[in-house]
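Quality-control log, excerpt.
Job 1 of 2 completed; input and output follow.
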Amino acid sequence: MQWLVIRLISITVAGAAPGLDESAPDFPYYPFPSGMGTSRRAKPACSRGASSRQFIATRRVASSSAVKPLENDTAPARLGTAAELLGYLAVAPLIVCLAGEALLPGYGGRELAQRGAIAWGAVLLASAGAVHWGLALAGRVPRTAARMAAAAAPALVAAAAVLVGGQRALALLTVGFGLFWLYEHRSLGSMLPGVYLGWRRNLSLATCTLLALSMIASDAAGLL
């Protein structure tokens, strides 16, 4: 009896085996090549992720707006040697006139030296205003009525000094240079190059000093 049961079980299993084989999924099976693990198959995905991150970073850098520099940051660190030398030589005629007022023997010679100081001081003051007039016309500074009036004021003060003459003219030029220097630094300090502002400060200080000394020398020489 036991032999019969075992025989039936073996026949059943043998008959079911083809059915099991036929019920197996009908798709090819490709095993991993030898020596290749899952870590190697993940590397292309990592490289694609790195490329994506690099592309996003590149787009972020490209899309970010550049920071605009200050208007006076693009200026050179200093003026050229020739420009500086010519600028400082511009006050040399005032030194010559001051020496003439103090050293020339006659009244006529001293008066001529005084008129020379007034004339040259007027030229320097008018030229300082002309720089701002040109900047306004070129659009480098705001072209408002106040700016244009401030640019024209030095020429008007210089013309008035020439008409007045004497020590009053020297005093008017001294005040004009001082006020215009304050205007440059207080009102246009952020629009003009720092090297130019420093150069103008030195020239204005030297010019005001020489004009004040000319006024003192005129008074000592008995000039009006």
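Job 2 of 2 completed; input and output follow.
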Amino acid sequence: MGILLALALSLVWGCSNPASKHIERGNSYRSQGQLQESVVEFSKAIELAPDMAQAYYLRSCAYGDMKEWDLAVADMDKAIELESDNSTFLGYRGALYSKRGQHMLALRDLDKAVALGPPNAWIYFKRGAAHFYMLTFDLAIADLSKAIEMDPTLVEAYNLRAQSYSRIGQHDLAYADWGKVLDMTIEAEKNKSPR
């Protein structure tokens, strides 16, 4: 999701913005796994356009890829300071908080992201995961079910929903979801295998 959004954002900024060439280079480096180089380019974009929320978001994504959670959260804080009503930014910061084990903070941001819309399977999945780790399994199941409804190929949502069902003793539903996970995983492997 992050790389596609990054590419779309770079098209929106276009060539008229002097920071756009650094955004494009940063996106290119990130898509190739050259994360340090992408951070350098996004930093140059920020120097040229310090009010460009997307540049902070993109650098945060690169830091997140590097598992530099504190740096990623700091950049998301700045992006959200600049664009407080951006559900993508709030959803990503919520996911970062979850990575740091700060699930209450994650839920705060993910709740805001859901309220702002538009509906997004990834945000519902991340909120469901935060509920799972907070041991509120009924809420986790509700969000994970919504994520699956929006994106029936989201294997991770089936897996986490199965774990949630298992934790509340609904083993038949858990086994059904784990069966879907297995079927989808086998199908994905078949599609990867050379014929």
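Post-run check on job 2. The chain has a mean pLDDT of 92.
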